[in-house]
Design a protein that fits this description.
The chain is an alpha/beta fold. It has one domain (3-272): Aldolase class I (TIM Barrel). It has 11 helices and 9 strands. It has helices spanning 25-31, 37-48, 72-87, 105-113, 128-133, 140-153, 170-182, 200-206, 215-232, 245-250, 261-280; strands at 3-11, 56-64, 93-98, 118-124, 156-163, 187-192, 195-196, 235-239, 252-254. Helix 2 runs parallel beside helix 3, helix 7 packs parallel to helix 9 and helix 9 packs across helix 11 (261-280). The longest helix has 20 residues, at 261-280. The termini are far apart. The structure holds iron/sulfur cluster.
Length: 282
């Protein structure tokens, strides 16, 4: 199987009508100019200079806010810029990230027309109380409906979940992982909640109404979550948020950040397994 090479294009979502408790997109968008089709071409050309598209599966990835919630003219202009490379055989796929409540038959038809191959959706929790407490603006039923539609069209599907959100517990995290695994995505990403400055979560952290998980607690919660995905055969492509050095200094205020978070969880999983094996003979 060919190795993946991803050309990441960060599309800050200026027009996002939401303000999820943990999200600092509004702050980020204040600092970055909008992305244009010219920017897409420049980035793809730059990456293609060093990627052998014969040997690799090359995909353009629109990351950032909620791609399908962006104004239609702007999003189709970006997609058209990427599609030209796909039509020319220089890239093999286009992926993007979005929210469950901005998926519809019309939107999926549009994405199909523009050559999109994979959709990654921010789910964060499958518990409505947790979704509401974090001001997500959608429900678990919206997630299930969106997954059904995405699969009906035949797109690849990735789902993201978080642990340590406002109102989250070990039980709600385990329930979320079980419900996500039952939806049979192609892959998942799992993020412990971090507190970034200039977010509603930061205000709650400052006034003492939100206490972030420690690294230790986040690891302990992620162990059963990882087991659920492992046992269901769902690939976890990322565990823990990547935070750049500048961003960490500038905006990360608190939370269970560790540069090798996944290794901590996997180490704990292997210890638990050897404890179980050890106990089995007693
Ligand atoms: S997480 Fe997504 S939907 Fe929520 S505020 Fe940020 S960009 Fe908007």
């Amino acid at each position: 199987m060919k190795k993946y090479k991803i050309i990441p294009i960060f599309v800050p979502h200026k027009g996002c009508p939401h303000q999820c408790a943990f999200c600092n997109q509004h702050r980020i968008t204040g600092q970055l100019a909008g992305v244009t089709p010219g920017d897409v071409r420049q980035k793809v050309d730059q990456y293609l200079q060093t990627i052998d598209s014969e040997k690799h599966r090359v995909e353009v990835a629109f990351y950032g806010g909620s791609f399908t919630a962006i104004d239609k003219a702007a999003r189709t202009a970006l997609l058209a810029a990427a599609k030209a490379y796909k039509d020319g055989g220089k890239i093999h796929g286009i992926r993007l990230s979005t929210r469950p409540d901005y998926i519809s038959g019309d939107i999926l038809r549009e994405l199909e027309d523009y050559g999109v191959t994979e959709i990654e959706m921010g789910v964060q929790s499958m518990c409505d109380e947790v979704l509401a407490a974090n001001n997500r603006g959608h429900t678990a039923a919206d997630v299930k409906a969106a997954v059904r539609e995405i699969r009906r069209f035949g797109f690849g599907l990735g789902l993201q979940m978080m642990v340590g959100l406002i109102g989250d517990t070990v039980e709600t995290s385990v329930r979320t992982a079980k419900e996500i695994a039952a939806l049979k995505p192609d892959f998942v990403r799992v993020y412990p909640t971090l507190v970034f400055k200039n977010t509603p979560l930061y205000d709650r952290y400052l006034n003492g109404t939100y206490i972030p998980l420690s690294v230790e607690d986040a690891v302990a919660i992620c162990v059963p979550v990882m087991r659920i995905f492992e046992e269901s055969g769902v690939k976890v492509v990322r565990l823990g948020l990547l935070v750049g050095a500048d961003e960490a200094q500038d905006s990360l205020a608190a939370g269970p950040y560790h540069p090798h978070f996944r290794e901590l969880v996997e180490k704990r999983m292997s210890i638990n397994v050897s404890e179980t094996v050890g106990n089995a003979g007693v």
